Amino acid sequence: MIEIIRIRELKLEHASRVGRLSHLSAASGLVCIGEQAYVVADDELHLGLFDLGSDGPGRLLQLFPGELPDDNAERKALKPDLETLALLPPMPGYSHGALLALGSGSKKNRRKGVLLALGVGGTLGAAPQLFALDGLYRALEDKVDDLNIEGAFVNGDQLLLLQRGNKKSRRNALITVPLAEMMLLLRDPAAGIRIRKRDIVQFDLGKIGDIPLTFTDGAPLPNGDFLFSAVAENTDDSYRDGVCLGAAIGIAAPDGAVKFLQPLLQPYKVEGISGRVNGDDIQLLLVTDADDPVVPASLLSARISGYPF
Prior knowledge:
The chain is mostly beta strands.
């Protein structure tokens, strides 16, 4: 089993609005660049920025205009449900790369994306660019049951998306989208994207009790494999939350081979993962979602030894 070290709670200098608590509670995607951690939370309109070199509070950058209601049910219905955060490489128009945040696609209002240009050293550059991505999500829902995109990362010239299963629709999937096509779609919503059967690889991650382990995030590794986090959440669909029975960290190849899969010693609901290779160790940083707005999300660390597998 993998032992987890709890580093700190994701406290904030200021809440996202008056009356809200000053922490992230539903962290769902993580990218680390140097000593900067970028975190999206699926119940906010903001990006969280945290300094890994200190234990001070983070700050928020608003991505979407407006405010979400405080009532939990209303907030859940209206939120963009940002579940993924991916680091894009340097490319025309983004000489230092960019961050791409995507909604889960599980409802019509969750089919949006945000692109943030990066500056020197991974600092944030221009203002967030917002996109409606109906073309992408229509192509995905034609091929995937109960659409719920929970992870995204770049592998070479491909953008890889992780579809999360549930107790009723148990199949997890890795979906390959050419990065060039994704960038074209961001410039031209009419461009569309074609998802073919060969672009989708199914994964069976096993179960905890009778609840399947399902993807919650992923991150690339230097040899072409990828890290992933998975949880066993007792829910029948992509909308309702359920009790988390446990979690696991794994390493897999894009062809579907799972090379490493170990449960966490502590049953944190991990929804964001980042990894740095140091010799034959992978140093992990993880963020959590407690499904309770009064409980702060946590930043965790762990280690996997013996890489590459």
